[in-house]
Specification:
Distance between the termini: 18 Å
CATH architecture: Beta Barrel
Helix content: under 10%
Number of strands: 9
Structural class: mainly beta
Largest sheet: 8 strands, antiparallel, barrel
CATH class: Mainly Beta
Strand order of the largest sheet: 1-3-4-5-6-7-8-9
Number of domains: 1
Length: 207
């Protein structure tokens, strides 16, 4: 759920940026600053639909399969000491985002596909018999923007817990994001850890 987001302050967004592959709205939610030119693209396509494979269905589990608009309000980043130098691709402020997604389901196994970026890896997880959905994603990237002339790499982890409404038309819950910053190399010791949390509402639009 992702995320898709990681998107911090608008131009520090979680949206695809030219020249960066595999970077989407999930980065925005994770707090990565990417190009703002497509920051509002999700709102143009809200309503869902599309031709993605939504899976074999819920079977005996509660149905979460379908198309949704995912709205997320993301809090500001908190970083451990030492504080990372200024710059880089992580926006520090709070922000909100909206993105159309497809929720695939095959029994208890679920995933969220970002409809604006169907080629990106989905957030994956499970749903239990009470309608509780647990999802997450992991990714790593080299920051495009230097921090006071220093190069950093970021490992991003996102996790989400959602609860399905009785009629299946809403899911609400929380997200958490962790950014591990490493200086000079993707395998260097962790320089700083930056975290943030979010609140999420998903509204069914079809399926």
């Amino acid at each position: 759920m992702t995320s898709r987001r990681i998107k911090e302050t608008m131009p520090n967004s979680r949206v695809r940026s030219p020249g960066i592959t595999g970077v989407t709205i999930r980065l925005l939610a994770a707090g990565l600053l990417l190009a703002a030119s497509t920051a509002c693209r999700g709102s143009e396509d809200d309503g869902g639909g599309g031709t993605i494979d939504l899976g074999t269905g819920p079977g005996e589990f509660p149905k979460v399969q379908g198309y949704f608009t995912r709205s997320e309000s993301v809090g500001a980043v908190t970083c451990t000491s030492p504080t990372p130098p200024p710059g880089g691709d992580i926006a520090m402020g709070s922000y909100s985002l909206s993105e159309p997604v497809g929720f695939t389901q095959s029994g208890s196994k679920v995933s969220i596909v970002l409809l604006n970026y169907p080629g990106d890896p989905p957030d994956t997880g499970t749903v239990d018999m009470t309608g509780k959905v647990t999802l997450g994603f992991k990714l790593s990237m080299k920051e495009q923007n230097l921090r006071s002339g220093r190069q950093f790499y970021v490992d991003v982890t996102g996790s989400f817990v959602l609860n399905r409404s009785a009629d299946g038309n809403q899911m609400t819950g929380t997200g958490s994001y962790e950014n591990l910053l490493r200086e000079g190399s993707a395998t260097a010791p962790v320089f700083a850890t930056c975290t943030r949390t979010s609140t999420i509402q998903m509204t069914r639009t079809g399926g």
